Structures are given as structure tokens and as C-alpha cells.
């Protein structure tokens, strides 16, 4: 979160009223909470991820452990692969509730899962039950090497709300986005966020 004046200007010129907040070790919840309280910040979109085990269904096989990657967003429509149009919802709804997930259509088909089905995700200690709110596909087809770890295969990416991540006990965020109330105060907003 420490940036030089030159880097600050680059951030402002490239992002406008949206600032990306990230760090090598993630971003602690306390820092994001402090940023959300800043006067020039109108909204924060927290993003987190965690490897989880599937209970009662199987990940699409690859190399390594049979895990899925669960991505949590406060709002998946403004940031991330759906907002960037890298993924598109094929069936169902977006993340409108606190306990829904978006699942790759191939993963659902391989396991005989349908929209509305409830599934269990988590680790040995904490598990959460969620429902399949939507099925997605990438906007471009790509061939994955068989050497890709199971957890990183495109088909094994799940998207959900931060409420589900909180229920799993996920701490901190991989990145977050701070939206400034007034784009005209970008420099001041960048300064506030950098010093949070």
C-alpha cells in the first residue's frame, strides 16, 4: 500500500474513480475497513479466495490435490471476471443472495448438478452449504494443459459472496477496489487510501 508519487499518478490516470488495493501478502480486513471509512471513498468491493474441498461431488481432475478455488466478492458485477466479460452467466441468476455460488457449467454437468442444488464446501474444520445460483462458461475457449493443478483449472473456479467467505472463516482479502465518491478528488482519494 506504499506508493511513490509517480506510482500514485499512474494509478489515478489508469483507474479513474476506482482504485485497486493489493499487497504481496493480501490485504488485512482492518486496512479495508479503514479505507471504507475514508471520506472520499463511496464503496469498497472486497475480493478474497480460498481453496476448498468439495463434499458430495468431485472437482474436475488435474494435477495435485482435488480442490476447488472459491472466489468471494461483495459485488461480482463491478469487478472480476464477470465484470471484465471473461466469464458469462449461461443459466440462472447472478449472486443475488448471501448463500449462492456461480459454478462452471462443465463442473455441474460432470457431477449431475443443477441450478438450485445445495452443495457443501469447505475444509476439515469449517464447511458451508450453498446453492447453485448460476452456471457460467468462459467467453473464449482455451485448452488447458493436463499439468494444471486441479485447484487452478478453469472448471474448478467457484464464485460467491463475501458472506460465504466469512462463514468459512476466511480472513483478509486478496485484493479490493475502492470507489471514490467524486472522480475530481482522485489525487486526494489516492493519498487517503495510500496512507490508510
Explained architecture:
- With 196 residues, this protein is of the alpha+beta class.
- The chain is built from five helices and nine strands.
- It has a six-stranded mixed beta barrel.
- The longest helix has 11 residues, at 5-15.
- It is elongated.
Features:
six-stranded mixed β-barrel; 5 helices; single chain
Distance between the termini: 8 Å
Mean pLDDT over the full residue set: 87
Q: What is the 3D shape?
A: elongated
Topology pattern, helix = H, strand = E: HEHEEEEHEEEHEH
Number of helices: 5
Structural class: alpha+beta
Helix share, percent: 10-25%
Q: List the uncertain runs.
A: 1-14
Q: How do the helices and strands line up, and which of them pair or pack?
A:
Elements: H1 5-15, E1 18-27, H2 29-36, E2 41-55, E3 67-73, E4 87-92, E5 100-104, H3 105-110, E6 118-122, E7 127-138, E8 157-161, H4 162-167, E9 173-180, H5 186-195
Parallel strand pairs: 3-8, 5-7
Antiparallel strand pairs: 1-9, 2-3, 2-6, 2-9, 4-7, 5-8, 6-7
Helix pairs in contact: 1-5
Short description:
It is built from five helices and nine strands, in the order αβαββββαβββαβα. The protein has helices at residues 5-15, 29-36, 105-110, 162-167, 186-195, and strands at 18-27, 41-55, 67-73, 87-92, 100-104, 118-122, 127-138, 157-161, 173-180.
